[in-house]
C-alpha cells in the first residue's frame, strides 16, 4: 500500500470522506516534502488543479487536522507549516541560522509527566518548535 492510500484509509477510519480535493491535497503534501505552508500547498495544488480554490485548501487542511491526519507547527515567526501526522515528531529551530531539526516526539515526556503531576497541565510539545541554537551556531 502506498503512503497516499494509507493516509486516505486513515481519513475513512476516522469518519472522514475522501473527496477529490482531499486526495489532491494529500498527494501535493507528499510531493512537497515534510513541511509546507498553506499558501505554498495551495500554489502546488492550483498548478495542477486550478479548479480547487485557496479557500478549499484551507478548509481541507482544517478538516484533515481535526481528523488527526495532518498537523501543523509554528517554527518561529513565519506562517505555520503542515505535515502528515503519520510520523509524529517535534521540531527544534536554530534562532541564528534558521535550521529546523526533527526530534523524537517523546523527547519531553519527562517534562510532560512532571507538568501533569505537579500542575495538572497537559503539554502538547508538537504545536510549537523549541527555539535555541544548533551545534554549529552555539560553537565558540
Explained architecture:
By secondary structure, the protein is of the alpha+beta class. It has two domains: 3-84, Arc Repressor Mutant, subunit A (Orthogonal Bundle); 89-138, 2-Layer Sandwich (Dna Ligase, domain 1). Helices cover 45% and strands 17% of the residues. The chain is built from six helices and six strands. The protein has a three-stranded antiparallel β-sheet with strand order 1-3-2. Strands 5-4-6 form a three-stranded mixed β-sheet, with no helix packed on it. A hairpin with a 7-residue loop joins β2 (70-73) and β3. α2 (20-32) crosses α3. The longest helix has 13 residues, at 20-32. The protein is globular and about 50 Å long. It starts with a helix and ends with a helix. The mean pLDDT is 93.
Summary, kept brief:
The chain has 140 residues and is of the alpha+beta class. Helix content is 45%, strand content 17%.
Task: Give the tags.
single chain; 140 residues; alpha+beta; Dna Ligase, domain 1; 2 domains; 6 strands; globular
Class from helix and strand fractions: alpha+beta
The side-by-side strand order for the widest beta sheet comes to 1-3-2
Q: How does the major sheet shape up?
A: 3 strands, antiparallel
**Secondary-structure element pattern, one letter each:** HHEHHEEEEHEH
Which superfamily, in CATH terms, is the homologous superfamily of the largest domain? Winged helix-like DNA-binding domain superfamily/Winged helix DNA-binding domain
| CATH topology-level name of the largest domain | Arc Repressor Mutant, subunit A
- Strand percent estimate: 15-25%
The domain count comes to: 2
